[in-house]
Design brief:
Largest sheet: 9 strands, parallel
Distance between the termini: 16 Å
Strand order of the largest sheet: 8-7-4-3-2-1-11-9-10
Strand content: 5-15%
Structural class: alpha/beta
Helix content: 40-55%
Number of helices: 13
Number of strands: 11
C-alpha cells in the first residue's frame, strides 16, 4: 500500500480560530516537510480559485454559508517549486488543476511544460509533479473566466454541455503536452441528444429552449465550439515528460477511455465513491489504460481518506478513541454546517463511515478492512484542523504505528 498526504490549506474558522494567510502557508510548509521526512510518497494539494467569501454576494452562490476561504492554493506550479526546494523525496500533486480557468487548456499545457522544463534542469531530479486535472470545483470559478452559458439554450443544456467542454479541453491539453500541433478545427463538433441528459424533463426543457432560439432540428442539437484557435504548439518543447504524471478527476467512463487514447492518464478518486464503482473503474482501466503507461495498477487511482487519529501516549486506548471520535464529529459537523448552513446528522454519519477514526489499533483495523493492499491512499490529516502540531503528530503516528500494523493485518499476522 502506498501512502500520500492530502492538504486542503482551507482558511476557515475552527473552534473560533482563523489563522492568517501567512500562518496557513507556514503550517502547510511545516507539515509537508514533516511528511517528506517520514517517507510519504506525494503531497496532494487542493486547488481553488477566487474568494469563497465574495461569491456569497452572487445571485446564485454555491456555498452561501461558508466562512473564510475554501482553499488558498490557486497555483500548483509556484507551490511545487517551493515544496521541492524544501524537501528531498516527496512528490507534489494537484488536487485538482482546473483546465477551464486561467486561460483554459492551452495556457495550462504551457504552464506544465514550463514547470517541467525548469524542474528537470537537474539531471538527477526524479520527483514528479502529479497533475490531477478536472473541470473545476465550482461553476462560479469558471464563470469569471468566461466559461458560462452564452444563450438560453446553453443555459438549459449546461450540465451536459459543461461536460463536453471539459472533454474538449482534455483533448487539447493532452495533445499539446504530447508535442502535437493542434487547431480547433480538429476538435469534433459538440452535438447533444436525448442520451446526453439524465431525464425526460431535462431533455424537454432543452428542446423548449432550442425552440425559443429558433432551432428547427430538436433531436440533434449542435453547439458552437468553446475553443477557437488556429494551429498552435506549446513552448517549451524539449522537456522531460517522465517528470509529469497525469490524473483525471472524472468518473465518466467514456472520458476516462477517451483521454487514454491520447496518452497514459490515471484516475483521481474520492473516498466517498461506492466500492462497486471503484472495482468497475479498476476493471475498465485495466482494459483501456494507454499502453505507453504499462499495465494498469491499483495505485494509479489514489483515494482520499479523512484521518481522525489520536495516539496521545498520556491517554489510554479507550481515551484516545473517544478523543478521536469527538474530534471527527465536531469537524464533520462544522463541514456540513459550512456547506449547507445546518448540521445534517445523516450526512455527518455517512462522512464518518468514509473516514478512519480512533486510536492507532482501531485505525489500522479500519484501513486493513476497507482498502486493498495495493491501493494508494491520500491521507487527509488537516481536515478542519488548524493545530499544525496535532496534524504533524497524526502523520507521524500513522506512519510509525498504523502503517506497520496494517501490513501485519493484511499479511494475516494481527496487530
Amino acid at each position: 500500500m502506498d501512502h500520500d498526504v492530502f492538504f486542503s490549506i482551507s482558511q476557515t474558522p475552527v473552534d473560533g480560530q482563523l489563522p492568517s494567510e501567512a500562518q496557513m502557508w507556514r503550517s502547510f510548509l511545516d507539515q509537508v516537510q514533516a511528511a517528506d521526512a517520514l517517507g510519504y510518497g506525494c503531497a496532494w494539494v487542493a486547488m481553488s480559485h477566487l474568494s469563497t467569501q465574495v461569491q456569497k454576494r452572487h445571485a446564485h452562490p454555491v456555498v452561501p454559508h461558508w466562512q473564510g476561504e475554501i482553499g488558498l492554493n490557486n497555483d500548483i506550479f509556484q507551490l511545487a517549486q517551493k515544496v521541492f526546494a524544501r524537501t528531498r523525496r516527496i512528490e507534489v500533486g494537484s488536487a485538482v488543476l482546473n483546465l477551464l480557468s486561467n486561460g483554459g487548456p492551452i495556457a495550462r499545457a504551457e504552464q506544465v511544460a514550463t514547470f517541467a522544463s525548469l524542474h528537470g534542469l537537474d539531471p538527477d531530479e526524479r520527483r514528479r509533479l502529479r497533475i490531477g486535472f478536472s473541470a473545476g470545483r465550482f461553476d462560479f470559478m469558471n464563470r469569471a473566466y468566461g466559461v458560462a452559458p452564452r444563450d438560453a439554450l446553453e443555459a438549459a443544456a449546461w450540465p451536459a454541455l459543461r461536460g463536453r467542454i471539459f472533454a474538449d479541453a482534455c483533448q487539447i491539453f493532452l495533445r499539446l503536452l504530447g508535442g502535437e500541433v493542434v487547431s480547433s478545427d480538429e476538435i469534433p463538433p459538440t452535438v447533444l441528444g436525448r442520451d446526453s441528459f439524465r431525464g425526460d424533463a431535462d431533455w424537454a426543457a432543452v428542446q423548449q429552449a432550442a425552440r425559443q432560439v429558433g432551432r428547427t432540428d430538436l433531436e440533434r442539437l449542435e453547439f458552437a465550439p468553446r475553443f477557437v484557435f488556429e494551429p498552435v504548439k506549446i513552448i517549451p518543447q524539449d522537456w522531460r515528460r517522465q517528470l509529469v504524471d497525469l490524473v483525471i478527476g472524472s468518473h465518466e467512463p467514456a472520458l476516462q477511455e477517451a483521454v487514454n487514447r491520447i496518452r497514459p492518464v490515471k484516475v483521481f478518486n474520492l473516498s466517498i465513491t461506492r466500492p462497486d464503482v471503484i472495482d468497475a473503474t479498476h476493471a475498465r482501466m485495466a482494459r483501456v489504460y494507454h499502453p505507453d503507461g504499462g499495465p494498469w495498477q491499483r495505485g494509479y487511482m489514489p483515494r482520499t481518506v479523512m484521518v481522525f487519529l489520536d495516539a496521545d501516549p498520556s491517554r489510554s486506548p479507550a481515551e484516545q478513541s473517544a478523543a478521536a471520535h469527538a474530534r471527527a464529529q465536531a469537524a464533520l459537523g462544522a463541514y456540513w454546517t459550512a456547506l449547507e448552513g445546518t448540521i445534517d446528522p445523516v450526512k455527518v454519519a455517512h462522512a464518518a463511515d468514509n473516514a478512519v477514526i480512533g486510536n492507532p489499533a482501531e485505525v489500522a483495523a479500519q484501513v486493513a478492512a476497507r482498502f486493498h493492499p495495493q491501493d494508494r491512499l491520500m491521507l487527509w490529516f488537516d481536515f478542519f484542523d488548524h493545530d499544525s502540531a496535532r496534524v504533524i503528530a497524526g502523520m507521524k503516528a500513522f506512519w510509525q504505528q498504523v502503517r506497520p500494523a496494517v501490513e501485519r493485518l493484511q499479511a494475516g499476522q494481527g496487530v
